[in-house]
## 1
Amino acid sequence: MNIRSKIILVVLPIIIVTLFLAEAASYFAAVNGITRIARQFLSFKAGELEKYAENQWDLLTENNFAGRPDMVAAAKNAVEYYARSIILSDTEAILALDESGGLVMSTSDLEIRPEETAPLLATLKEGSEGILTAVIGGRERIFKSFYFTPFQWYVLLTEENTSFYRDADSIRFQTIVVLAAASLLAVVMLFLFALHLTNPLARVVKTMNAIIAEGSLASRVDVEYRDETGKLASTFNHMIGELEKAYTQIKRYAFDAVLAGKKEQRIRQIFQKYVPKDVIDKCFTTQGSMLKIGEDRNLSILFSDIRGFTTISEKFKNNPEDLVESLNRYFSGQVDIIMNRNGIVDKYIGDAIMAFWGAPVNHDDDALQSVLSGLDMIDALKTFNDQQKKLGKPDFQIGIGINYGLVTVGNIGSERKMDYTVIGDEVNLASRMEGLTKTYRAELLITESIYNQIQRPSSPNLKGGPRLPCRLLDKVAVKGKKEGVRIYTVKRSLTEAEEKAWVYHNQGMELYFNRDFPGASKRFEEALSLLPGDFNAASLLERCREYAANPPSGDWDGVEVMKTK
């Protein structure tokens, strides 16, 4: 065993063990202290809240108000107000449960899930003292509880486990950092000490530096000793000989790598204007194999168009630069929405936008993201129009159509000009949906295929909430097609009146397709009573009354054939 190894093996363990023991002792002392204080503080707050509740009850009993429900309710409200006043963090919450486990008071939006109620109530009824742990609202929480008899409440002062032990975790991290830094410093110092003891190696290093500075692979290190330094010099000489043979090849590889890096950087700078960053990253990791000449895929396609753009253009006749500026602001907001939801902006068609989801990278929620993009685009248009009004410029109104289906996607074009785009009947149907927004006076229309995607049981929900509400408007055969497709409008949320009216409307549509025109008429009338002046309900009511008076032929299937685009 050489001298350096002996130095390291003898000294380093002593230093590391000493540092570890010192840091461990400091860590456990600090953590125990902080945890004890946190637990005592939580218990103190619980005691103060219990005292306050008892004081409120004493006021009721002293004034003979204990039998009045309104005064009892006021006392409960006072307890809740006091509970809110002693909350110190966003993750802290104070709850109260009744005898059945129902939540009767909460200082936050925290909800107890049904599966959590029984074990939590069992723990509370055991009457255990001290700090307890339970899963509340899907998260493990620390809590201190007490039972307040007058209200028959189980009161819980809770804090998220991670927040409760945040300071302890911080100390743990700091301890690890300090220990690592001290260990690293010890290693460095030990290395310097060993280097000093092995001074003969300095002459070998000096020769190595001379070779690097001169850049001559012809130089060699003199082998002066038969110990480790001599072996190092001999090995280095052998390495230089091998490097000299591969020098030319190494330079070529380095040059090629530099060129490839610059080329990738240029491609990224250009492509990021059209495609989300994660798509570009995946393209490079798969060496461009994603951008195939053509393949069939199920995609979601969106078309958006500005209504009455010719009329708007005429208003800018004397100031075309203002029109360009307004369009640029409009496109900037709309395109950002599409790309932020993993969409690809295929092209601009005059004042229209064509985009798609699912290629070259597909996601489980492509259909949902396309619909959410459409809703976001409508919301963003309101902000845009507010700014237009401030600038004294006309509003923009848009129509959006979305479809989901099998299309051909890939690099399409000639050798001199290629586009990564999508083609097929489903693309045309998406375009027709955008056109039908004018017919059905809707800002957003989706096809039945999109509806099935966002309503299927495995479809991701909107922020974990309910599925997007949809309203069936008709079954149409677009121009050039004989087969009908159901079309829907969709919103992010509904008013109470809209929620009831949409249920009646959808029921009416099913009755309509089943040729029960009187029954359908009744449903549309109910929808109209909730939404007076609703265009689609009124149109379908008129259609039902006409069919009730003059029944359609036996082969009628409810399809409305569109004569125009």
Note: DSSP finds 16 helices and 14 strands in the chain.
## 2
Amino acid sequence: MKSTRGRNLLHALPATAALLLIPGGAHAQDITNIPSSDRIPRPSVRQDSYRNQLASEISNGGWKTFLGDLHVHSRGHTFGLVVPNVNRSEVHQAGYLFGFDFLAITNHSTSWSDADEDASLFQYGPGIDGYGQPHYLGMKGSEDYVGPDDIAHTTSFNRLLKLNTNDMGVWHEMILDRYTANPLNSVHVQLNHPKYLNPYFRLPQRSHLWSAEGVAKVRDAIELVEYTSLPSFLEFLRLGFRVAPASNSDLHANFRQAVEFDDNGDNNIFLERANGAWVRPYFEEPGVPRELVWPKIWAHNRTGVALPVGTPWSYESFLTALRNRWVFRTSHPRSSGFFLGGGLPMGTEMELQSTSSIPFTVWATTLDSQPGDETQWKRLEVWSPHSPEQPLYVEEFNDPALLDLKRTFSLMPYESVYVIRLEQVMGTDVVLAPVWITNPLPKPTIAFDNGGSQVQRGLRIPIVGINGVSGSYFVQRANRPDGPQDWRTVKTTTQPFHPFDTTHLPKYSWWRVTDTVQPYAATNTVMLTVTDALDVTLPLPTVPPTEVGTVTLRWRHDVPIRAAYYVSRDNGWNWTKMGEEPVALTTNAWRFKAWQWGDDNVMLKVVNAANPSLFGATTPFPATTEAPAWFPAHVASMVL
């Protein structure tokens, strides 16, 4: 693989003076005015950090992950005539003491103050860790208001936008004005709390006003999107953004009274008791992990940043990691993940150099994880934004000792974007930055030879040709006349064509080919019609049936036949005859008493009694054991 984007952090970075965090030292208008009794006490020494090390067996010694929060507010919204505020130094001191690896204070552009303007762009926590790196990175950003009626918010870092506009074009222009290819001198943009299918954000479109180069620069500068759900994240990728997922708290400084009611005016959990105590002793505030206030809620989100082992943890390496999309989100505060795709790290935009499959290696771990704490890994999924209904690839795990995950697999690169999600037993998950492929392989296609999608049984063998498939693949069939459903594999092969034996096919069948590793990477669908087969239908839905325990099957044929009825409980391998029509008909209905067959899946078949090669069959459907109270057990199961 060839990377089309990626900055090498192994080269020397410009030295930058470290600004130590010192309590107090408030700038103008940066005085804490929230009572200390409302705030959770600070520990006397720094708590454990969340840093993990992954993939130590690879050549450069692996990758180290850092976890933090890129969206908190030292000031709150106006409450009466007084704005709630926590001094910036106190917020960073809390972040340092509570173990964050990084924290960004991102006050609103609509209420930007002198204290925000005077604050340091970045600063380090006191002392260094065992690796000789700063314990903590504190940063400044601006949460900017953009889009229709200020609905869309973004955060800018390094070269701040401090924007408040309804014009998305102004936002694009300001990003372009502050963008450089060197991440140390450029603006960096995060899309904040988006809504699924209503994101408000758009990239500029190529036009006489925007060159392809300008569009690419804006897209390159927008690096992160806050993760609200997998469908929302996939939607942004489908819109063309090159974003990695981030998860932040969006905590604001606030007064107790301001959080006494929710948006509907109802009392919330911070309401005061009759004896004067508070229902909860402390409320959420910037710099304090949410799990300290909400210990019984398992999802406490973090943004994760990955760096090659040996790379110094610094503001410069942080900015470079953002530009390279070496970023992930986690809903467990101590869990991290990382992967290589085609030998290149997550976040890479790559160009294929061959038509072979791409190897993926995925790692994940949780700091201080122990057997029995439900942090073991349960599931690995690979998703494409262009196939959002189901994952392309899935692995399930059932190992209580699987605390450190490593999995290797290969996928044919039919998609332009791949997203990996890892789930833990407790329900927490880690979603990793995508990889982008600029020249994906065309998906396989199938077609009947000479348009032979309609044949007469026994007179002609239809052959479907498969184009663009390499290796092993599944030939699959569905046979519901109302559309392709219930796909079943009928053959595994490596041949570029597949002949159909029509001896036992129903009148209508649908066919496709899928990759054996990526069962959802399917070709187009083609329909085959066997002209001398019976047309058999079941009403939908079949469960529950309109009459409890009874399913009605209908059939028809162009010329009269004397029909016989069969049932199978093993997907058509063996059939039991249930009855036969006394006269020849062109159409009829058969009421099958499904409750007598237990909880099995059953298939029904209608056969020409005079010529058994003429038949029609249903796909399997679930029966029921629930018999009508009035129906005697000895009555035959077929009603003509």
Note: The chain is about 10% helix and 35% strand.
## 3
Amino acid sequence: MTHDQAAILIVIAGTIGMFVWGRWRHDMVAVGALLVCVVFGLVAPGDAFAGFGHPAVVTVACVLVLSRALQLSGAVDVLSRSVLPGDAKPTVSIAALAALGAVLSAFMNNVGALALLMPVAIQVARRLDLPPGKILMPLAFGSILGGTMTLIGTPPNLVISGFRAARPDMGAFGMFDFSMVGLPLSAVGIVFIALVGWRLVPARKHAGTAGFETSTYITELRVPAGSAVEGKQVREVTGVLSDLDAQLLDLVRNDVYVRSPRPGKILRAGDILVLEANAGVLAEVLSRLDLKLEEDKPQAGIDSAYDLRDEGAGALRLGTDAGLKAAVGDVSDLTENSGSSGPDAGLELRVGKPGIFVHDTDAGLAEMAVLPEARIVGSSASDLLLRSRYGINLLAVARQGAFTVERLRSLKFKPGDVLLLQGRLDVLNEFANSFGCVPLAQRDLSIPDKRKAFLAAGILAVSVVVTALGLLSAAVSFAAGVLASMALRTVPVRTVYEAVDWPVVVLLGALLPVADAMQSTGTADLLARLLLENLAQGNAFAGLVVVMVSTMMLTDFMNNTATAAVMAPIGLGAAFRLGVNPDTFLMAVAIGASCAFLTPIGHQNNTLILGPGGFRFGDYWRMGLPMDILVLTVSLPLLLFFWPL
């Protein structure tokens, strides 16, 4: 083993370890790995950022923009309304929903496809009286399978095609080369999901599905002065909470956090109770215990100075205007929005001072799931100034895993969290679009602009056809599609760059030179030799199985794009060492990298359904393990038939 080989192995091992650890975001880890390779001389400084100009990176960015055009134009709504049955039984409903997710994922970003169909899936769960997870996991797995069908279906396919194109005697894969294995695999997988798979999903159900009881929430309630529970012992409150299927976790008094307060502790006015409860029982908890939502109280002094009247559900109405200046300063700092006409019209006051916000009569509640790469990940309500800047109250958070001792307003958001937010409905919708959240509510399936819906679908179709016919490369074809979308306004020009999932683009651009270094130093060939000699014993079919299984295991714990970039050179090295068809091994890596079914962290779609489905980390393997076995059983014969060794 040479010094360069040892160095790149250390870098790769450290990179995989950081991916699995999950403390740093994937793009940060990838850039770090690239810079270390440059410092060690494994990647030439002039080639360090060549990956960002790679056709695969350009294609990924362009497909994301075209996906956004489909979302904004309402084209997906038209398709879902036409395809999905209105009153079918679970098997047919799940089959139709998973199939639609697979078809969409074949031509657009699969995370975007899942996000579009999640509200529909939750509505189907309500209609069938099933836990949301019973519908969400089949939809997520179906959309993952759909990505295996085309070149643009998922970034790993583009990575694999890029490695093939880098060989002077091979060239890139075509648009539908992946379909020969991906299409039958998706069809068989969806049949399995509809007939058997959804029955294996754990039933994480909380008091019915009406009202989107997706999971238990962590929320904070304040004991107001004169409350019925003021002066009572903790045990009296916990008894009432137990009857309501809720529990008291902690208590905050004078900014001091008390974990699991003792039963005999006396409650005082101003105490904050940290509860775990379902969204459906929060209102009853507030009523029975005479409590107030902590994040929904006006700033001290404003209610008395400005005569605020509680209208229920956290909405406050303005009575007189006397004393406003004394309470909040210059009246010119306020903006006034009428929710209705007449003297009692609701007012919305936004004030420069943090925490001062008065809801108008258009205020409402919304549940939102946090996307894996959402802008709010790693931030808290205080960091974002949700209340003072946007007029949004964070009322509760549903999260799987360990509960931290942080206050609700300082809790850092994670992918898969479900947030219960209060504010103006138009502001909530704008917040969801801008910050990467998925509203978990039945969406209006009306078409915002029918002409734009057809234009968006037509532009994508033309780009696909041009690429499939070989008239233009995928990168050029889809870049032209983006330009056409901007010119025809199917996607607002100002939002084009917001549509790109930049962490994925940076991850891909940074890892491509690292993967090239594995080949140039001979490390990929070394790893392939070790795998073949120790596990496959020189047998070509056994080598194919080893490469595919290794890829599937790795992708369950790290980003699928990163997995493809790491395993592609190893797969190529194994094929060349065995003297067999390299396409067979590259396709095996593509399939294996896409099929992450065992954990919530292996694929962004799995992470996205974690909170809304009420899942735990260990819930995925029950359906995921049979899916992995199915993928191996179906794809290996297809690989040997269409890409013979």
Note: DSSP finds 26 helices and 13 strands in the chain.
## 4
Amino acid sequence: MHRTESDRIQLINVLWALKQTGVRHRLEGAQSVSLSALIRDSALRAEFIERALHGEHPELVALARRAAQLDRAGVLSTAPTPAAAVRPGGGWTAAARGAVLATVLVALVGGALGLLFALGLLPPGHRLERVSGSIYDDRVWHADTVYLLEGIVYLEGTARLRIEPGTRVLGQPGSALVVTRHATLEARGTPGAPIVFTSARPPGSRRPGDWGGLMLLGNAPVNRVGAMIEGLPIGDPRGAYGGGDPDHVCGVLEYVRIEFAGYEAFRDNELNGLTLAGCGLGTRVRHVQVHRALDDGVEIFGGTVTLSHVLITQPGDDGLDWDEGWTGAAQFVIVQFGAERGDNAIEADNRADRHDAQPRSAPSLANVTLLGAPESKRIQRGMVLRHGTGADIRNLLAAGLTGEIVDVRNRATARVALDGGLGLRGALLAPGPGPAFPAERGAVVGLDGRPLYPDAFADDDDGFDEAAFFTRPEGRLEVSEASGLPPTAFDPAAPRFRPEPLPALRALAVALPDDGFWDEGARHLGAVRPEGPDWTVGWTAYPLD
């Protein structure tokens, strides 16, 4: 390719990335300006680049510097626009618009291919396939192809998408893969060839929220009539979930990684790394890692879905989040926070606007490891249980958390606990800088009528005493400085989660139900056996950017 043409394509790619990054960081004018306008109007282009150069975000400034460097070379003005391209009185002719579009397409296709090859994201012998819009027919995504999501891609009707082991799916800004409630996704990776959903940005510039993530919508029961998933356009019927089939199959996720997902669709309305809404018992979620999601790692809206061997690393908000009547189960779950990100390792609700809605959220969890970053200045909590949720939680190992390890909120949730619907049995809690159960302050207000203590330690559960309730002898719970976890368990770049075989990790463990789902041999605290192989090794990855 001629040098000038190569530079032209590179500048168009940089302008596209600059616009998308500007939208994410709310740069003035980024939402409204079009790429074609930036290409054809040199004054507008220079003004936009200059504005970005004075932005506050380093990624934005770096892109603006590169755009300015290329623009100074005049690569977009080497092919003057013919007079015939301009209509009398101003405006572009259809032919001119077509030429601009062709240039953009060449840049986005040729530039993306070259970039993917250069970064090793498109291995030799592989091809790039762009995916957009709706998929209505059965398809197979092959391991010799890299799939690039453009916008929200819907799997609709009764379509089935099967993804081969080792396949990579890249998400552009604003993209997501949504499996609607009559369609099915079969993503069966292997330990040696996991399926990877990740950002389309080059390594080194990837950030949480680069793309939207993966949504599976099903027909299992939820406790909200007419439920519509958050993060999709309001009123779009393809966002509906929930029904009367507890055995519904949303699909299969095995040895799957989801990275850098979860963009903010609207204010306080984000997509998560993995969303399971109304998925039933027939859905299989096994060996799944969600890494550096902008919002929650995994969020479950109702349904009866079960999960096993789930690793959530460095989420921006919560690790595992459930509400709207989830009654499924999860075994072998790890949530690891980074120092700068993360609020609640588990955030559990029944329903915020109706605490007694049925079916009530009441999942069973066993062999759970929750890890804070002890050096973090954030309040990172273990489990926040609120809005009337129930749960049966067994064999928990928690360490390094700077806030409460177990926090019951709302009178309704306290009542569920006192009635036997919310319990924790078998646990070793090794808190971070603060106590496992900080004393709650009374509801004291200032002269302006506002709470003096609007933080996490305010009395928000009508005086329910977590320490007294959860440390009863039958609960087999111990608070200790020693967790058995190695320092590498807190390492954001290369963690290892297998603990030393402390006697307490076996002695405190309780038996699991005999109902066909549980690995009953896991009579230990935490998600990884103190002896034996670490199931997180080999198929996972922990890129920081």
Note: The radius of gyration is 25 Å.
